[in-house]
Specification:
- By secondary structure, the protein is α+β, with helices and mostly antiparallel strands.
- It has a single domain, classed as Beta Barrel (OB fold (Dihydrolipoamide Acetyltransferase, E2P)), CATH 2.40.50.
- The chain contains 5 helices and 9 strands; from the N terminus they run βββαβββββααβαα.
- A 6-stranded antiparallel sheet has the order 1-2-3-9-8-5. Strands 4-6-7 form a 3-stranded antiparallel sheet.
- Strand 6 and strand 7 form a beta hairpin.
- The radius of gyration is 13 Å and the shape is globular.
């Protein structure tokens, strides 16, 4: 399994071949609470890094999900429409949000590694 990289907005990214799979971190889903709805981006959409492209709603709040890298959306996790709770149960596995074809794959390597992300989360506590 490819290494996860992270953003300070609590998204994770895993580069698998020509596409990067994106979701929210366990920390983010814990903070949100029970997820009840997800609004996913449209396949084919070109996005800029940092652009708000999805929304996740929980019993507590709604939150934007940002594109961690620039590229084109090539797939969305349709299973989240019927079962948004996948995000709570498996945030870095079956609870992924979308796959993006990176405009520049080096952007993934520039994101936080697991240790740097853990230190960032700890600094926010």
């Amino acid at each position: 399994m490819a290494e996860l990289r992270f953003t300070k907005d609590h998204e994770w990214v895993r580069l698998d071949g020509d596409a990067a799979t994106v979701g929210i971190t366990d920390h983010a889903q814990t903070a949100l609470g029970d997820v009840v709805f997800v609004d996913l981006p449209e396949v084919g959409r070109e996005v800029a890094a940092g652009e708000a492209i999805a929304v996740v709603e929980s019993v507590k709040a709604a939150s934007d999900v940002y594109a961690p890298i620039a590229g084109r959306i090539v797939e969305v996790n349709a299973g989240l429409t019927d079962d948004p709770g996948l995000i709570n149960r498996a945030p870095t596995a079956e609870g992924w949000f979308f796959k993006i074809e990176p405009r520049n794959p080096a952007e993934v390597a520039a994101l936080l590694d697991e240790a740097a992300y853990a230190a960032f989360v700890e600094s926010q506590a």
